[in-house]
Amino acid sequence: MNTKQKVVTKIESLAFEGKGVARVDGKVVFVRYAVPNDIVEIELLRNKKNFAEGKITRIVEPSPFRIEPICKHFGVCGGCSFQNIPYEVQLEWKRRFVVDAFEKIGKISNVEIKSVLPSPKIFGYRNKMEFSFGTSRWLTDEEIETQTEISTKEKQFALGFHIPERFDKVLNINYCHLQDERGNTIVNSIRNKAFELDIPAYNLRNHIGFLRNLILRFSFTTNELLLNLVTTSQVGEKEKKFLDWFKENFTSSELVDQLLVTTNDSYSPTAFGNIEILKGNGNLFEHIGEVRFRISPFAFFQVNTLQANNLVLKVIEYANAKEKIVWDMYSGAGTFSLPLAKVAKTVIGLESLESAVEDAKFNAQLNGIENAYFIAKDLHTKNILQELSKFPNPEVMIIDPPRSGIHKNLLNAIITIKPERIVYVSCNPTTQARDCQEFAKYYDLVEIQPVDMFPHTYHIESIALLVKKG
């Protein structure tokens, strides 16, 4: 089997990262944007020891599950993996991802894994979008095949999303179906004006340029929109003219309720910096259940607000925390802690990011919640058990770690502390399964509830309920 070789094969299934799985000469081949039961011609791109990767060059016979994606950028931008699969079929495969992770990685098969909770909205569900400016625009296959004449200026400016595995390339996004309609109007307006005035995008390699990111946040509670332009301080006459237009256009616009400009001269690609508020107070507000949350410009918040309500309700149900002491590990801005505080005796939220702790404290005060306490703590330190011993022992523990899962130091500490009940929320079933294999020595894994927070992507949230043995 050689790279650049073309073969016809059948797609057997989907892998966790959303790639189709085929077999050629007995070797597994991963194929992006393939649908189970497709018969496709693929070109082999990489041939590694245990697997290969290929791309579709021709669909010989489409799967009965294949549908036409709604987005013209599908298959290029990388944001969506499954727009070519009906939503109900997406949910079936996402459940399989969780089942496979627990059976193959966690070696756990005797647990009930429920049907996936579907998202209330499958388009326009995101409350945050982050677009990047770039100095190297990705040319589409159509532009290349039709030999469309594109100027050097057009090739050197883009506003959209980075191409998967090509962080230097940015695809112009004219319309994203995952965001509020107002966002598409704003993105196109800013791109056109910046191009007209010849404003340089920031170059990640030589760190020269002005425009870095465009962040939009939407409140599903108040219907407000926050627009945040991230730039460098490399300001000349052209850049001043653009900023004047930006301020005048959007301070008077009914589309925008909160308007900010953030200056970021760091070499880090992460969007942050010194904020100037041009309109409003710089914050949005959302409700999850009975709790009101302030969302500051760069704060983490679940991106699917409507489905976050269902996620929190399920966590509360599993926690069964009435009049109990609850610890919320990786507590963030209090997404789980504050609703739980409505029923629990005491909630202690532990989080390593100090800005998130400050947001959680503010949100507690905003809601008049006095039995939730938030502490900034490095949860991965070697002496974490000693640090945690300063707090009253929990009867219930909520754990919502990053994709990498629970750090081994914290995992060992939790096993030593042995709360009666653990509710483990994860955005990565593979690391969740790995950690639950360790917990299974001391806990019964009662059931798992997958929750679809990200329709049309391969991502799946899952909530595991563990109860101490005996």
Task: Describe the protein's architecture and organization.
The chain is of the alpha/beta class and 470 residues long. It has 3 domains: 6-66, Beta Barrel (OB fold (Dihydrolipoamide Acetyltransferase, E2P)); 92-122 and 304-468, 3-Layer(aba) Sandwich (Rossmann fold); 128-286, OB fold (Dihydrolipoamide Acetyltransferase, E2P) (Beta Barrel), CATH 2.40.50. The chain has helices at 87-105, 141-145, 152-155, 181-196, 237-251, 305-319, 337-341, 354-366, 384-388, 408-417, 429-439, and strands at residues 6-10, 13-14, 19-24, 27-32, 39-47, 51-61, 112-113, 128-134, 158-163, 166-172, 211-218, 225-231, 258-263, 274-279, 284-288, 291-295, 325-329, 346-351, 372-376, 396-399, 421-426, 443-451, 461-468. Strands 7-22-23-21-20-17-18-19 form an 8-stranded mixed sheet, sandwiched between helices. A 7-stranded mixed sheet has the order 10-9-8-11-12-13-14, with helices on one face. It has a 6-stranded mixed sheet with strand order 1-5-6-4-3-2, with no helix packed on it. A hairpin with a 3-residue loop joins strand 5 (39-47) and strand 6 (51-61). The mean pLDDT is 95.
